């Protein structure tokens, strides 16, 4: 398993709400390698819950129900799913796996200098470390990603949206984690600032600051600009996985086609075809159907789709969960 860094095996993570389980991530298996991986899907598809599973940051009402999460580090296999929260916080978070959380730039307290956040992060990982050493490391990282080191002494309200997001990226990568999870990092930014942030994230990989980036978004046009491989999620499950260009040019799953056809892109064929929406709504994940979860909305549905659940099968180095491609 060359370059394998993180492996999820049949993971299930449910929310307990009003005595019912919301099956947000339901039997997902995924390999994360030395790459930029994009994970896309509608709101409620399970993308952000999957990031919590990757980190094993499990807090009520979220419950880790089943599966394994394994980290491959220097020849060792570390089972994250068997570690305590305290062990994860001390040994894994920030060091091996780090995250740019959703709406991170808006979570910064306006009355707290950026430097204070940096000191807090580093002190949570090291019992003995000099403040001067921390500040020097932070200034170097800020300048490495194109931000003046003087910004660490500023308050968040003194920074633009793009600068705040880049400052959060710098803090998240201070310890050179091997996996960086970026959860909707450009959703609140204008187009010009989005491009700047995307370039910064890609630069982290190009410079070897991080080995792997998992880019979470609902916007397939955005992830297309940065990712090498794409995973499409729907209703808590992976429905398609493959090389970015291959999936964009020849989507297999009807849901992937629906996502692509609902986005405006500059290609002539898209302008000619126009925008096509996906009818209906996702299923209730407190009681998901035992068959294909996309069945009620699918333009290619067949009789078997209403009776059985399709498996994620391999097709020419790609994966798809659809009976259109299963040999029966």
Instruction: Tell me the total number of β-strands.
Output: 12
Largest sheet geometry? 8 strands, mixed
CATH architecture: 3-Layer(aba) Sandwich
Task: Identify the CATH class.
Answer: Alpha Beta
Low-confidence stretches: none
Task: Give the helix tally.
Answer: 10
State the secondary-structure class.
Answer: alpha/beta
C-alpha Rg (nearest Å): 21 Å
Task: Specify the overall morphology.
Answer: globular
Helix content: 25-40%
First and last CA, distance? 31 Å
Report the β-strand fraction as a percent range.
25-35%
H/E series? EEEHEEHEHHHEHEHEEHHHEE
Describe it.
This protein is an alpha/beta fold and 328 residues long. It has a single domain (4-107, 178-320), classed as 3-Layer(aba) Sandwich (Rossmann fold), CATH 3.40.50.300. The chain has helices at residues 47-55, 85-92, 114-123, 131-144, 161-172, 191-206, 220-223, 244-249, 254-261, 268-273; strands spanning 4-17, 20-33, 36-40, 62-73, 76-79, 97-100, 179-183, 212-217, 229-234, 237-243, 313-315, 318-320. Helix 3 (114-123) packs across helix 4 (131-144) and helix 5 (161-172) packs parallel to helix 6 (191-206). The protein starts with a strand and ends in an 8-residue tail after the last strand.
